[in-house]
Amino acid sequence: MSEIDKKILLLLEADDERVLKLIYELYFKRLVAFSIEFVKDREIAKEISSDAIFRLWQKRNQLLENSCIISYLLTIVRNLSLNYLRQLKQETNTISFSSVYDIELHLNYEVLADSSWDILLTHELETIVNDVINALPIRCKEVFLLSRNESLSNSKIAETLNISVKTVEGHITYALKLIREKLLHYIILIFSIINYFQK
User: Measured at the alpha carbon of residue 77, what is the angle toward residues 74 and 82, in degrees to the nearest 5?
Assistant: First the structure.
C-alpha cells in the first residue's frame, strides 16, 4: 500500500473531512479523464467523478485497511458511467448507429457492463500504465513521475527541474494522452476477446 493510501485511509477512519480536498487534488483529474473516455461529455464526467468521491466518503467505514483508493474510485466511476450510458440507452430506446459517436457509446456501454471488468483493476492496469511511462521521453517521464508518485504541483515541478510551468503541463498532458489511448485500446481488446469466446 502506498503512503498516500495510508494517509487517506487514516483520515477517512478519523472522519476528517479534509481528506476530501486531498482526494480531489490527487485523483479528480484522473477520474474525469477516465470517465470521459466512456461518456464522451466532460461535464457529465466531472459530475460522475465528484459523485464517486462523495460515495467514497459515504462508505468510508466499509473500506478495508489495505484498500487501494484509486482502484476503489475507478470502480465507482465505472459503475456510475455504466448507469449513465444505460439511462442514455433507455431514453433513446435504442442506439441508432447513425454516427461513429453512437457506435462508440454503444461499445463503451457493452465494455463497462461486462462482468470481466475486474481484470482491469488488477495488476494488468498498473502494468500497462508503467509500460507507457517507461517508454516516455526522459524529461517527460521525469515530470510525470514527480506529478504522479510525488504528488508535486506543476509549479513545484517546474522549480525543481528549472523549466516553465507550461512545459510541465505539456509533458503531463502528453503522458496522460498516451496512457488514456493505451488503456482504452486495452479495454476494447479485452471486450473483443471475451465477446469472441462467448459466441
Answer: 125
